[in-house]
Amino acid sequence: MKPLRLLARRDLPADTATLARWLVGKTLVRDSSEGRTAGTIVETEAYVPGDAAGHAFIGRTARNDSLFLRRGHAYVYFIYGMHYAINVSAEHAGVGAGALIRALEPIEGVELMRARRGTQRLTDLTRGPGRLAQAMAIDRALDGVDLCVRGSPLWLGHALRDTGELATSVRIGITKEAARPLRFYERGNPHVSGARALRT
DNA sequence: AGTGCGATTGACT
DNA sequence: GTCAATCGCACTA
Questions:
Q1: What pTM did the predictor assign?
Q2: Distance (Å) from CA A85 to C1' B5?
Q3: Which domains does chain A have, with CATH numbers?
Q4: Does the CB of A82 fall within 7 Å of any strand C atom?
Q5: Where on the phi/psi map is residue A112: left (φ > 0), alpha (ψ -120 to 50), or beta?
Q6: Is the pLDDT of residue A40 over 60?
Q7: CB-contacted nucleotides of strand C (7 Å)
């Protein structure tokens, strides 16, 4: 396997939508006491500055504070009383925006992911924001973590393979700003979510 | 102090 | 295809 190399913050595009597109193909790595899990990012959504669908729209609060950090930090939120999901903070410090990571293709630690998820099927491990958070043991304890430093429990790595065709669609599960084409995914990848939510 | 709901998922008809 | 689970948080009062 190719070695996992940390992405430098200067490599991250400052613009939120550009960042979300660019993240498809990169690697998300989780180092925990249980071991390492990692996956190729295959689906993201952009929540841009001033976006009424974004969690930062209401202004900076204790919950969404991490969205306002300099790009490359984790914003982890709790939703529906049972699920966590992770964003990569975007833009400059003080601007509330982020890229939601919606799906991964597992690369490393698949057995650990299976144990955490309580299921065997490979495409059930990290297809969807809640599932991937569970597979990677991501919760509010990781909120605000810097994804661009060595030794972080959660970090971003370079692409480990060529990325397939990038596709674009509207975002899933929102009602405001629902027509904006801000979801990005690798076309045809079986780990991409959204089959229920979208016909395309 | 009470209310309503959400960037989802899994179980079930 | 439909729907309940489950709770932190923003908002109203």
A1: 0.96
A2: 17
A3: 9-191 (3.10.300.10)
A4: yes
A5: alpha
A6: yes
A7: 2, 5-11
